[in-house]
Amino acid sequence: MVAPRLEIDLDKIYHNAHELVTRLAEHRISVTGITKASLGSVEIANAFLQAGVTGLGDSRIENIKPLRLAGNHVLFSDVPMTLIRSPMLSQVAQVVRFTDISCNTEIEVIKQLSFEAQKQNRIHQILLMVELGDLREGIMPDDLIDVVGEVIGLPHIFLKGIGANLACRCGVVPDATNMALLSDLTAQIESVFNLTLDVVSGGNSANLRWALSADSRIGRINNLRLGEAILLGRETLRRQPIDGLSTDAIKLVAEVIESKVKPSLPTGDIAQTAFGDAQPVSDRGLVRQAILAIGIQDIDPCGMQTPTGINVLGASSDHLIIESSENKLFVGEELAFELDYCALVRAMTSPFVSKIYSSRQGVPPAYAFGKMRSQTLI
Fold first, then answer.
1. Which is more confidently placed, 364 or 316?
2. pLDDT of residue 374
3. Half-sphere CA count of 374, side-chain side, radius 13 A
4. Residue 119 CA from chain centroid, whole number
5. Average pLDDT over residues 216-227
6. Are the CB atoms for 274 and 316 separated by under 8 Å?
7. What are the C-alpha distances in Å from 121 to residues 43, 93, 127, 297?
8. Which residues are catalytic?
9. pTM of the predicted model, to two decimals?
10. Where are the domains of the chain?
11. Architecture category of domain 9-232 in CATH
12. What residues pair up with 126 in beta bridges, in sequence order?
């Protein structure tokens, strides 16, 4: 079989998504399935939808467009599509055409969306993102009322709700305090403008510990945007496994192209490597070293969970150097790794890593109604 490859178990992804959808529904919270880590995979989006997510979201219009054009199947023609990164002015026409909702922080962008929506005779829905301390995107809370006042007066624009994003830039934890603030801001908007916000999107996979806690006060939060927790089965604050979820739904498989006994200490003067300063190493004598046909162009070596007895020593663009502390590895042998989020995103993005999908439990195959972009095994 082709290598390197990602082996993607759609049954496990479906299971993870269904479990989280079910658990959050008990707290009256819906799930928007985020496809950005999967590069807008039609197959994974289909598994999300079959599991009960109420919509799909992605940070890039380039991923949303093929989902919208994946065929005439009702799942993709009717499902709400959300652009979760603030639109670029250069892409507002595509945003209005291919998405139903976009997350926004800049009134200039929303005015352009309004203008484009008029041209296309469409209503475009807006989620205003609020800054709650992580210092990525968001309108400052004190400015929110003024922004809402401008937005609700724009033609062909509908204020769908507000949202927030935490733990992505600075690692700020979603908790009772910042989630209560989001609820309070919702109530304030509704009172000032005599309207009802349909969606209050509290955040991403980092919100799960707060949302699923027995003593959490959910308030007005009624939506989370989940991707990593579904794909990797882990919460994202400490990267611990989520009880009852599969952490091995996606595996990277790479092939050995060299296997030799070599010194553990390099010889000669040391300068910079291909990717910066050399990392210090200790002299451990001779070691069993092997090279896999994959590199930093395709993967984050720090984000690979190695099999027992295997350690990652380093990497260059196209080579991953590992050490086997137990058995000799043979040329042509394959090794499988679980991945963290960074490694998954890079592998999914690489055109040199094949994506192999499998399903044994009857998740309806997306390729039946969408053009396949990779090999699928059923």
1. 316
2. 39
3. 24
4. 32
5. 97
6. yes
7. 31, 12, 20, 43
8. 36
9. 0.92
10. 9-232, 250-339
11. Alpha-Beta Barrel (3.20)
12. 102, 159
pLDDT in tens, 332-353: 999 999 999 999 999 999 999 9
Peptide bond into 301 cis (omega under 30): no
- The amino acid that residue 338 corresponds to is E
Residue 74 pLDDT exceeds 90: no
Length of the chain: 378
